[in-house]
Structure formats: structure tokens, C-alpha cells
Amino acid sequence: MLVSALLTSLGINFGLCVLFFTLYSILRKQPFYYDVYVPRLLVEGTSKRRSRFNLERLIPSPGWVRKAWKLSEEELLSLSGLDAVVYMRIITFSLKVFLVAGIIGIFVILPVNCTGDQLEDIDFSDFSNNSLDVFTISNISSGSKRLWVHFSAVYVVTIFIWYLLYYEYKYISSKRIAYFYSSKPQPHQFTVVVRSIPVSVRSSISDSIETFFKEYHPSTYLSHTVVHRTNKLRGLIEIPAAFVSFKTRYGAATAFHLQQSINPTHWVTEQAPEPHDVYWPFFTSTFFRRWISKLVVIVACILLTILFLLPVIFVQGLTNLSQLEVWLPFLESILTITFVSEVVTGYLPSLILQLFLKAVPPIMELLSSIQGYVSHSDIEKSACNKVLWFTIWNIFFATVFSGSVLYQLSLILDPKNIPARLAVAVPAQASFFIAYVVTSGWTSTSSELFRLIPLIGSLITKPCKSTDDELVVPTIPFHRDIPRLSFFGLLGITYFFLAPLILPFLLVYFCLAYIIYRNQFINVYEPKFETAGKFWPIVHNSMIFSLVLMHCIAVGIFTLKKVSLASTLIFPLPILTLLFNEYCRKRFRPIFIAYSAESLIKKDREDQNDATMDEFFHKLVTAYQDPALMPIQFSTNTDSLHSPLIYSDEV
Amino acid sequence: MLVSALLTSLGINFGLCVLFFTLYSILRKQPFYYDVYVPRLLVEGTSKRRSRFNLERLIPSPGWVRKAWKLSEEELLSLSGLDAVVYMRIITFSLKVFLVAGIIGIFVILPVNCTGDQLEDIDFSDFSNNSLDVFTISNISSGSKRLWVHFSAVYVVTIFIWYLLYYEYKYISSKRIAYFYSSKPQPHQFTVVVRSIPVSVRSSISDSIETFFKEYHPSTYLSHTVVHRTNKLRGLIEIPAAFVSFKTRYGAATAFHLQQSINPTHWVTEQAPEPHDVYWPFFTSTFFRRWISKLVVIVACILLTILFLLPVIFVQGLTNLSQLEVWLPFLESILTITFVSEVVTGYLPSLILQLFLKAVPPIMELLSSIQGYVSHSDIEKSACNKVLWFTIWNIFFATVFSGSVLYQLSLILDPKNIPARLAVAVPAQASFFIAYVVTSGWTSTSSELFRLIPLIGSLITKPCKSTDDELVVPTIPFHRDIPRLSFFGLLGITYFFLAPLILPFLLVYFCLAYIIYRNQFINVYEPKFETAGKFWPIVHNSMIFSLVLMHCIAVGIFTLKKVSLASTLIFPLPILTLLFNEYCRKRFRPIFIAYSAESLIKKDREDQNDATMDEFFHKLVTAYQDPALMPIQFSTNTDSLHSPLIYSDEV
Q: What are the CSC1/OSCA1-like cytosolic domain coordinates in residue numbering (chains A, B) (predicted)?
């Protein structure tokens, strides 16, 4: 790809961003669009539909940027919960990483690459006609001593990322514990889900539960709610699952951690989700059905991965103009026009990819929802993981190795050649990924601000809606946005020493994300559940993977460039990274699974002298209300929450 | 290999067995050898050293066989504990499997194989000159309808093994629970090991422990014993680990299951072993040292596996006479003698293999002991697993694929070709493994009875020993014997439809083992610890692996023999086997890890009215006595238990 193609792509996207920002700055002030741009404020009543017209409304103003910038972490925490704080910390974490990597990349590695002598010298008279490759490591000749600069950069950045990862895991762990300590008594802290309750002919499920828990948890058992579900054929049915509440958090934790019955498949307990986070269809499916579903989901994921290669191959063809002319000869005349060819190679490929990618998060959420999770937050977490690995595999590896599943499989089956093949293939795709950051990153973030799809949706449905219809405040689709942030992190980490030119574009992306998402948390999104930071370990794992991948590429590159001492000296890095990860798993992971006896007992003791606890326990008894037993109106509302596509309001 | 070579091997081993049995029947009656053959009875005082000589002592008598045969499961349980019962059930399980497989194999598959037309017809006039291959599946021509007999046999035997595995897992689970219910209060049921106790400058470790557990387990905490170890440099040291005892089993279980501290790396709890089962050196090594040890052990296992291929390759050469003649041309004249060549091909290879194999269990136990386990039983279990997989890899796969590590690795890296390669290689080694069963199985079992090595050891050391020296009763080395039984199970399962001739020899082996081990449990071995059946899951896993391996071979064979429909129809079997295994893991595995709340509370309640509990609690306080603080004499005795080689009394 030539510099000019990149500049074209940059121009188009910069234009789009400016357009979206301007339009947003105007439209957000129009009462007609309040439901799109400030639904949260509208529902909370802090924003009233202004009817008086004034000229100021038509002039774009950047006031919202200042407001978003000034928001403190405490305000964000009280506004949108710990998950939003963790989300913003993913962005600040990436900003820190790429600021340091960026300084090293632009001021040290880039000059070294540019003054290399492997490729043609940079033609400063016709700058835009230079190949982007002269800015990459490809421009350094084999055996050159300059490669030790790259080697040092790999070490410095790796150590810096270790430090940041450790610091961040520690910080979020402490936030999680602090959040628990400062939380009011909540039903899910005192409750466990019990499944596979043995059905006996002599007594009802409710009686069995009471007998069992009064027998084995006499001092802490409080109450229970048997789950009922409606069935089209048989009406209301008698399901052997229940929410069992305890008088203390420690009591609930004990019931959850210990195997209850002699038969481990009976009286299976797990932590209860928040009442509004319960995914009720979970209870309808039997054990066997959930098992089959899991198999189906695995097969579906594999199929999706294979089918997705088709658009990727097509996109690959576009970046390679000459091949496209062979495939579609009638395009030859059009493609000779410079601008067209620049759009085709610089912009179109990543746009097409991006459109296909849009469909992945909702599909993955659908798959996760049939897999058998008891809560929406678990579904979201599982979908987040699926989307992340799908993206890494199908965007990174499929693009890098341009091709067929069989070829990719042959790579897995030949592990010792992976570094060498990565070393050849990864730098070759540097320009594609730089364009990808600009297209997919910049545009998706600013269209997140402009809320293009909800805007269109609102314009279409508004005429049909009555004013009485309740406004639904959207939730941020973590399973779409966290994998995206992580994937850009992976691109940055793997490319920073190969093609440091990617770093300024990434920094712009994360800066945009920083402002825009803070603004969206204030105006648009409302938290639907609180996992108290359980998304962080996913990001941590993806960073560890990125580091190890980067080390593999470095080993390959240094071997290819015949600096074998450097490639040998890189070897300790992936091993130390994995050991570091192992340490973090031991040190922090358990905090994200369950609270410790120490915290639970401390919190329980605090409550002992609290007069409001009686009222809380009174409410707790009916907290896990069964939607099937609620009045129709309410039931319908709750049912809409069960749709797995609820969060994907913006496709 | 010819029938005659097998007959030679059979003759030699049969002779050895008869010799060992006869010698045993005589020597066991000589008071001089009581310490070798009935050490257990001697120590228990049920057998007195008879001095009066009579002629009967010199005549071999089979009375011990009747005694061993008549021993009931309840007697064995009270005599040697649940582990011995489980050990005998592994043998009876194998007997049941190979009885059914044997009937099908000998009466259905063998005639089908013999009447095949792929190889030369059996020459009945000179029977011993036939190749053993005519009895195997190799004799069936491609595309033959007869292969459906093998196909059906695979299905029938697989389903029968599923049923038996399920039944056995269920039976042993119930035995384990019954054992727990019937057990007297034991110190380890009420105790947890606490490690990584944060050290503070203001208070001693003992005070910290008391403060912590009185704070968070006020109603159940009983007492604690801080672990002290002697150090050559610094004398007695203050280690941050302790045994903490509770007033109830449920209290101890709660402390073990829940993460105690906010920091998951502090106050780490695990189940306490029985007091005499504690592996004290565990406490001396630091967390970091244990981590490094683990890495070292992994590397050592890999090295051992690679080095072990040298004898295997040598043995391979022996079974292939012509190759041996190329290697060592001067042997040509000797090898032309029929008997010599028969010994070399039929007997020598597996004898050499067996000798090398003898060294593996002690080495693996040594490796396990430095890996960081708190008890001897855990070390034994880990060593058992290591020896099992080492045997499967280095005997089965190395023999089958006759060769280099690289070749084996290339197989792993090319999974879709595994069935095809197995199909070619496995039947080719049938005759070797038949000989292996006879040599390694028969001879090792009868030498187990004869106790060859302890006998020699006793003869050498007896003149130097004073009569005051206490007699040490040996323990059965589970980590040597369970992998052997499992490996013969694997051979039987994988070969039953390929070369059913292996089955009668296996049946004889298991019958011998049945009588001999019962006899040894009565007379020789004394249990040193009680895992209450925790070895069974290892055997279960190895059986599942054997089944899946057999299915892979079947797929390969049917593809090779061009009955592709059969190979397609085999496919559901491995999948169903893995699902079956998954179900067993859910249904039974948790029972082997910890007891359920239900059992613990029931048992605790029984004790409430027991008057002897006060005395028990009084003893419990000092149960975990520190060997470093004991009088020298006792300390030495206990130290000898720590030697990882203690069980390998018979090399």
C-alpha cells in the first residue's frame, strides 16, 4: 500500500468523524432526538423536552466534551457502577501502554526503520508515492546491528506492560472489595440458586427444600422461592429449582462452596444473580438439553468461523489490486483511476470487514444464551470471550495468513514453524492494519457517538409510536465493545516494533473512545446489572496472549533477519510472561470468583446492629419473583429483557 | 513371530512361575524366612517363629491359596483398608471385562480370523511354524463382510465396559461414603493445613493464627499446631504454616472450601492428611522453591521419556532378527540356532524392557516427592499417574511406532492421520505384546509372590542385623502396581478384536494377580495410609483412554480394510465414551475430593452424644506432633518414612 492510499483512507475517515461530531453537537440539542441522544437523562427526569426554539440550538457546541472530560471516577462509579469504571480503565490502560510504546516507536524505532537500506530510499519529493513498507522493520537489512534497538524496545515495553497489568489487576481487585464493603444488603448476596432438587412423590418440592435446608443449615436458612415456568402445553409447572435465601452472606457462601448432597448431581448450588439479572429461560431447559445445547454451540462457533473466512478472502483480494484485475477483468478500466484504486485498496477492504463483523456480537450472544447460563451477565461475559477470540482468529490470523482454514490448521499442527511464518506474514499486513485502525476504530467510535442505527430506527418507528410508550434506556453492549478495545490492544502490541506508524492512529482512537464513552455513560447507557468488575480478567488474558504472540513474532523476525542471538535472548520473555500470568491467577483471580470468608463475616457483622435489616429480610423473601406469576403487563416487560438481542441496539 | 517363539517364551515363563510357586510354598514355612514372607503376621504376633523341625515343612503345600481365596471383602477391608479393597476390585473388574471379551474373542473372532484368506492357511501338520499373524485381523482380506463381526464385538464390549465402569464407580463411591460413616473420629477429619500465614512483627505466628480463627471461626475453632522444622544452619525455625483443628468436621470443611483471607495468597487452606501420612519436608520448601521444583519435574519427566526410548529401540531391534544381523554381523552364526533365535525374539525383548521399567516407579516417586505435596498418599497418587502415562507412552506408543521421539511428535502434530497409522502399526505388534503379557505379567506377579529382591536383600543383611532391630512391615507400592494392572487393561482392550489370542494369557495373569495379591495383603503388606479409594479415578481415566484408543484403531482398521461404513459407524462410540466420562466426572468425581455437607453434618451429630469425644479432642490437640521436636529415637523412625523410596522394596 502506498502512503497516498493511507492518506485517502485517513481523509475519508477524518471527514466522517468531523461530520458525526458536528451533527451530534447539533442534534443532541434538538428535543426531537432526545430519546436517541440523552435517553438516560430523559427517563431520570433531569432533562426536560425544551420546546422553546433558539438559534443556539443550531450551532455545534463542544460543551459535552468538557462535561465528559471532567467526570471523576467516583461520579462514574455512582452513575454507572463498577463495570463502567472497569470499562473506562481498559481505555486508560491502553492509553498508558501506547503512550509509552508510542514515544519509543515514533522517536526511536521509526527513524531507525526509515533510514534502513533494505528497500528504496524515501522519496521526499513525491512523499505520498512511497510504499508504507519503508516505515516498517522490513526496511532493515539482515544482520544489521540496528535490530538491537527493536530488541531493547520489546524488552522495555513488555516489562512496562507487566507492571501496568499487575497494578491494574490489583487496583480493580481492591475496587471490587471496596465496592462489596460499601454496598447495601442486596438479595443476591444472601441467596443461592439450587437446581436438581430430587423430586419425591410424598412431598412437594417446596417441602423438600424446607426440610433439607432446615436440617443442614438450621441457623442460617431464611426462605426459598420455587421457580415456576409457564408451558404452552401444560400451563404452570412444578420445576425442581429454587432460590434459597439465608440470614447471612456467609451462610449463603457456605451453601454455595460446599457440595450439599451425598449425590453430587443433586441439590446443585450456585451463586444467585441479581433478581433482575436472572435469565429465566435457563430454568425451562433440562440438564440434558443444556448439554446438547453446549455441543450445538461449539459446532455453531466452528461453522461461523469457517463461513466467515469467505468475506475475509474477498477483502484480501481487494488489497491486492492486480489479483482483483485477474478475477474481475471488466473492472480494469475503472481501477486505473488513481482515486478509485486508492479507495478500493485503502478504504473498502476494512469497511467490508467491519460490516460483516457487526453481525458477530449478536450472533455470539444468541449462542451464549442457549448455552445454559443463569444470568444475563454470565451470557454477556461468555459472549464477550467468544467475540474476542473470534476476532483475533478471524481478523488477525485469517488476514495475516490470508486464507484457507486448512492452511491455518496446518499451522497449528506445526507449532515449531509458527514464529517463522508469523515473521514473514505479520509485517506484510502492517499497512492493512493501520488502515483498519483508522476505518474500523475511528469510524466505529464516532458512529457510537452519533448512534447512527438507533437514530435511523427512531426516525422510522417514531411516527408509529404513541407518546405513552415507555422509553427503554439502552445498556452498553460490553460483549461488542470490550473485544474491540482488546483487539486494538493486540494490534498495537504486536505491531509497535514492526510498524510503529500504527501507534499514533491507535492513540487517537483511544483518546476518542475515552471522551465518547464517558459521554455515553452520562447520557445514554444505564447499567442493567453489576458484575463488579468481572470483565477485567478477560482483558487481562487477552493482553497476556498479545504479549506472547508479540514475542513469537519477535523470535521469528530476529531469526529471519539473522540476528540469532537476539532471537535466543527473547525466549525468556514469553516464559516469564506466562509465569507472571500464573502468579496473577493465584493472586487476583479468586477475588473475581467469590468473596472471602473474611469479607463476608465482616460485612455480616456490620449488619447485625442495623435496624433496617428486618425490613430487608422481609423484602428478600419475595425478591426473586417469578415473572410467570406476575400480572400480564409486567410479565411482558420482563420477557422483553430475555431477548438475547436486547443489547445490540446498534448494529 | 512364529507360534514356536511364543511357545518358547510361554515355556520359560510357565517354568519360572511353577518354580516360584513351589519355592514360595516351601520357603514360607521356614522360620528363617518369616521376615520376608509373613512380616505382617510376625509383627502382629499372630505367627510365632516355630523352632521345631518337621518333614511337612519341606513339602510344598497349597494351603495359602485356599486361605487367600476364602478372604471376604469385609475381612480385607478390616485388614488392609479401603485402598486394598479398591486394588482388588481393579483386578476383579479386569477379570470381568476380559472374561466377556475373552469368550467373544476366542469363540467368535479367533475362528473368523483363522479362516481368513489374506495370509497363508494354517499349517496344522507343523503347527508351531505358523506365523502368529494368521490369528489376527491381518488375515482378513479387505472389504470382507467378516469384518462386521469385529465391528459388532467392538460395540458389545464397549457397552459392557461402560456398564461395568459405571457400576464400579458407583460401588466404590458408596463404599467410600460407608467407610466415612463407619469411621471413628480421626484427627485429619477435623483439621486443615494452613499455609502462607502473614508474618507480623508485633505478634508471633501462633498468636496470629489464634486471633484469625477466633475472629472468623469463633464457634468451631479448637486448637492449632505451628509447624517447626530444624535447619542445619539456624536450628529450630518459626515456619508460617500450621495444622488448625476444629470442633466439628463441618467446621474444618468450611475452612477448607472457602477462601479465607481477602488476599487469596494468604491463609491458604487445604485438607489435612492423617498425622502419620504428613510429608514433613513439604513445609521446609518455600512457595518459590516448590514452583521451580514443579518446572524441574516437568523437564525431568520429558528427559526421562526421551532417554527411555534408547532401550525401547534396542528391544525393537531384537524382535526384528534380520535387522539385528545387519547391526551385529558377528552374531549371525549364533542366531541361526533355532532355540537361540526363539529366545531372542520371544523372550529377551520383553525381559530387557521389564528390567528398565523396574527403575521407573522409584524415579517417578522421587520426582513427585519434590513437587510439593503435603502427604505421602498424594505423592503416591501423583507418582501413580506419572508411571501410568509413562508406561502407556513409552511401552505402547514407542513400541507400536518403533521409534524416534521426532516421529512420535510428528504424529501428535498430525492428528487426522493417527487412526490410519495406528491401524497399520498396532496389529503388527500383536505378537510382541502377547509375549509381553506372558513375560512381564506372569513373571512379575509370581516374583511378587516369591519376593525375589526382598529375599536377596534379607539374605545379605541378616548376618549384620542384631535381633533387636525392629522389623519394618512393607507397604504395597500402589504407584508401581496400579499402572501395571491398568496397562494390561489397555493392552487387552486395544487388542481384543485385533488379536484375540492375547486374551487367555491376560486372563491367566489376572487370575494369578487375584490370588497372589490377596495372599500378600494377608501376610506381607500393611497399609501406611488410607485414601479411602482415591486411586480409583486414575484407573477409570485409564480405561476411558483405552476405550477411545481402541475406537481410533478400529476406525483406522476399517478404513484400511475398505469397510468405510463400519468406520463411520464407529465414530459415535468415542464421542459417547467421552460424554459418559463427563457424566461420571459430574456424578462421582466430587465424592472422591471432599465429603458433602450432608455427610459431614450427619457424622458430627452422631458424635454429639458420644462421651468419648472429650478424650478425642484432648488427643487431637497434640495429634500433629512435629517430628523435629520429638525425641531423637522416634524422630529417626519417622524420618525413614519420608524417604521417597520406602515403598520400592522390591525393584
A: 189-238, 240-281
> Residue A453 contacts by C-beta under 8 Å, 6 or more apart in sequence?
A649, A650, A651
Q: What angle do CA B235, B237, B241 make, to 5 degrees?
A: 150
Grade residue A648 by pLDDT with cuts at 50, 70 and 90: very low
Give B140-208 as a DSSP string. Answer: SPTT-TTHHHHHHHHHHHHHHHHHHHHHHHHHHHHHHHHHHHHSPP-GGGGEEEEE-PPP-SSS-HHHH
Q: To the nearest whole angstrom, how far is the Cα of A393 from the nearest Cα of chain B? A: 20
CA distance B535 to chain A (A): 19
Amino acid at A525: Y
| CB-based contact, B648 to chain A, within 8 Å | no
pTM above 0.90, yes or no: no
Measured from the Cβ of residue A336, the count of other Cβ atoms closer than 10 Å reads 11
Read off φ and ψ for residue A53, nearest 5 degrees.
-90, 135
Domains, chain A, in order of start with CATH, read 3-184+290-459+474-608 (no CATH), 187-273+609-651 (3.30.70.330)
Quote the pLDDT of residue A212: 94
Residues 6+ apart with CB under 8 A from B332: B325
ipTM of predicted complex: 0.83
The 10 Å Cβ neighbour count of residue B198 is 13
Could you tell me if B588 lies within 8 Å of chain A, comparing CB atoms? Answer: yes
Candidates B253, B255, B599; nearest CB to A262: B599
* Other beta carbons within 10 Å of A610: 12
Query: CA torsion sign, B598 to B601 to B605 to B607?
Result: positive
In terms of Cα–Cα distance, which of A150, A214, A198, A165 is closest to A498? A150
Per-residue pLDDT tens digits for A545-586: 999 999 999 999 999 899 989 999 999 999 999 989 999 998
**How does DSSP classify residue B612?**
T
Longest dimension (CA), chain A: 92
Using the Cβ of A631 and the Cβ atoms of chain B, whether some distance falls under 8 Å is answered with no
In the block, residue with C-alpha cell 542445619: B232
Q: B386 burial class (0-12, 13-18, 19+ CB within 10 angstroms)? A: buried
B258/A596 CB distance under 8 A: yes
Mean pLDDT of B585-601: 93
